[in-house]
Write a structure and sequence with these properties.
The chain is an alpha+beta fold. The chain has 8 helices and 7 strands, in the order βααββββββαααααα.
Length: 190
């Protein structure tokens, strides 16, 4: 089993705020490159997220399922990554001082990876060191902090439905010819 531990400079609740947003998954999981869909019930036990891993144009689509959701203490995932197989990933968080300690355990449970677990554990530890680093950056940086907390003096916070004032923001007026030309070049394909 590959195990990594890291001290975070944030609360366990801030870690679980990031984990609770499935759309942030590729931001902290090394190898995940994009999200395709996140179940509305995420992160409840049994819910799934649909992701891709790899680098374009070589992408493989797969899913990850929540087996246990116990904030702010523990989350267990069954991460699929075929053709390598499936792995059970446990994330445990414990308060420590003004921060917390986060431990990730990953154990291959199906497929070729499970047959050579001892051989790939060093690679998983190397990868998960970076995974914890990315998760720390998101949690410590307030990735799921409400906008009002992130920038209380922002005009968007004062009235999020108010139109942007291009003169005040220094942005060019949308009716200027160069802005219209640039807008015509924008790719709007899905």
């Amino acid at each position: 089993m590959a195990r990594n531990v890291r001290l975070f400079r944030c609360s366990p609740a801030e870690v679980f705020a990031v984990l609770s947003d499935g759309w942030l998954y590729p931001g902290w999981v090394v190898g995940a490159s994009r999200m395709r869909d996140v179940a509305e019930s995420w992160p409840e036990a049994g819910s799934r997220l649909h992701h891709s891993f790899g680098t374009w144009p070589v992408l493989l689509d797969d899913i990850t399922r929540v087996e246990l959701w116990d904030p702010p203490r523990r989350m267990v995932l069954l991460a699929r990554g075929w053709p390598m197989g499936e792995a059970r990933v446990s994330i445990e968080v414990k308060p420590r001082g003004t921060g917390c300690v986060v431990r990730i355990d990953e154990h291959p449970v199906a497929g070729p990876g499970s047959a050579v677990s001892a051989l790939i554990d060093p690679l998983l530890r190397w990868r998960n060191k970076e995974t914890l680093h990315r998760l720390a950056l998101l949690a410590e940086g307030g990735a799921r902090r409400p906008v009002a907390e992130a920038a209380p003096d922002s005009p968007a916070v004062a009235d999020p439905d108010a139109p942007l004032d291009s003169a005040a923001s220094g942005a060019p007026d949308a009716t200027e010819p160069e802005v219209l030309r640039e807008a015509a070049d924008v790719d709007t394909a899905p």
